[in-house]
Write a structure and sequence with these properties.
The protein is 29% helix and 25% strand. By secondary structure, it is α+β, with helices and mostly antiparallel strands. Helix 1 packs across helix 2.
Length: 153
């Protein structure tokens, strides 16, 4: 059996040549439905996006999709990187203020073209307009129930 050099140092981890090191317990897996307040988080996210003028706000309800790793996606876009960053800041602040939930993980702050804020049961995607058109996340999850928030512009 060949061990990866980094696997030797970590307790409880085994790896074979060509396979990633995987912890030997199920504790590393995220579990859906960790919060009873997923709907409150979604409402706070939408309120934050509206406050900073997020465009084309869409909520995807993924609860009926067994392979989904979360219950909801909330997606919007903005025309500039500055606004993408402002949207992410407002989402984090308002969700904490209203529900006391902190993100499990945040990605994309470095380039601010696609910021992902993970609240476990709710994952927020804030795109730069061109990146949203390119990745077409809503089309990838076409089986999900789609709830569109109409902008009042």
């Amino acid at each position: 059996m060949f061990l990866r050099h980094d696997a030797k140092r970590r307790k409880g981890v085994k790896a074979r040549f060509g396979s990633p090191a995987v912890p030997q317990s199920n504790n590393y897996m995220r579990v859906r439905h960790q919060n009873d307040n997923a709907e409150a988080i979604v409402a706070a996210v939408i309120e934050a996006m509206e406050a900073v003028k997020g465009k084309e706000i869409v909520t995807l309800d993924l609860r009926e999709i067994t392979t989904a790793v979360t219950d909801y996606f909330v997606i919007c876009h903005a025309p500039s990187k500055t606004q993408v960053d402002a949207l992410a800041d407002k989402v984090e602040d308002l969700v904490f203020e209203k529900t006391h939930a902190k993100p499990y993980h945040v990605e994309g702050r470095e380039n601010t073209e696609w910021i992902l804020i993970d609240f476990v049961d709710v994952v927020v995607h804030i795109f730069l307009e061109s990146k949203r058109e390119f990745y077409k996340l809503e089309e990838l999850w076409a089986d999900a129930e789609r709830i569109v928030k109409q902008n009042e512009d």
